[in-house]
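W.,

You were right to be curious about this one. When I first looked at the sequence I had no strong expectations either way, so I just let the prediction run and decided to look at it fresh. Below is the sequence, 308 residues in total, followed by the output.
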Amino acid sequence: MVELLGHRDAHLRQVEKAFPSVRIVARGNEIGFDGPDADIDRARTVIEELLILVQEGESLDVDRVDRVIAMVRDDVPSPSRVFTESIRVGRGRHVRPKTLGQKRYVDAIRDNTLVFGIGPAGTGKTYLAMACAIEALIEGSVRRIVLSRPAVEAGERLGFLPGDLAAKVDPYLRPLYDALYEMLGPEETARLMERGTIEIAPLAYMRGRTLNDAFVVLDEAQNTSPEQMKMFLTRLGFNSKMVITGDVTQVDLDAGQASGLRMIRSVLGDVPGIAFEELSSADVVRHRIVAAIVEAYRRFEERERNER
C-alpha cells in the first residue's frame, strides 16, 4: 500500500486531481471511492493498473502515474502491460517502453523483418531499436549488430575535421555510442566493438555489402537521399533484421534535395514483412516541455500549410 499510494498519499492525490469529481479514501488495506459512477470506474481502473505494476515489482513516480491516467482516459486496454514489457540488454538490466506507441514499436520490431520507426525527437526510436538489437544478440538470434547514420550536419557546416576516418565520423555517430554506453557500459561496448560484434559505420561505407546474421539500425534516416535509402535497404541479408528510424520534420539536407524517408511509405507500404510505426508527441519521454515543443511546432506547421 505504501508503494501504491506514494509518500504522503502523493499518487492517490494525483489520481484525485485527474478525476476531480471523485473522492478517494485509503483506510488500512482498503481504498474507497465516492462520486459519479463513470468517473469512479476510471479512477478505480487507474488504481488497479498501478497496483498491478507494484505487484510486478515496478516503482511508481509522477510520470508513470500520469501516463497510466492518460492511457485509461484514452481507453487503452491494460496500461500496465505497456510498462511490464521488457527488453533484456544485459544481466539483470532491462529497457522498458513507457508509452503505448513505444510498445507497438517494440512489438513491430520483434514481429517483422524491416521496421520504419518515424516520429519526433525524444520518442525513443533509436534507443528502443538498439535495445532490441542487444537483446537479439544476447539471445543468439543474430551474430552482430550494425549501426549506421548519414554524416549530415544539423544546419552548420563544420568543414574538414582532423584525424583518421574514425575520428572524422565520430561526432556524427556519438549519439549511438552514448546509447551503447548507457545500456552495456563503456568496457563491454569497447570489447564487443574490438571483436567486430558491434559495428558503427557511416552510411557512405555501406555500398557493396551484404549484412547476414545481423541486426541493422539506420538512424536519422530523414537525412538520406532516395538513392541512399534504396542502397541501404538492399544490404539486408539472410537471418537479418533492419530498423530504420527518423523524424521527417527535421531534415538537414540541402534545400530542394529529397528525403528518402519521406517517400518510402509510398514505395514499400504494401510489401509483406515491412512495418511502419508512427510515434507522436504523446510518446516523448524526455523532459515534459519537449513534448509541448513538438506539439507546438506541429500545430504551427499545420497552420502554415492551411494558410498556403
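Here's what jumped out at me. The beta strands are 23-27, 30-34, 87-90, 93-95, 114-118, 144-149, 198-202, 214-218, 241-246, 274-278. And, maybe more interesting for your project: The first strand starts at residue 23 and ends at 27.

Coffee later to discuss?

I.
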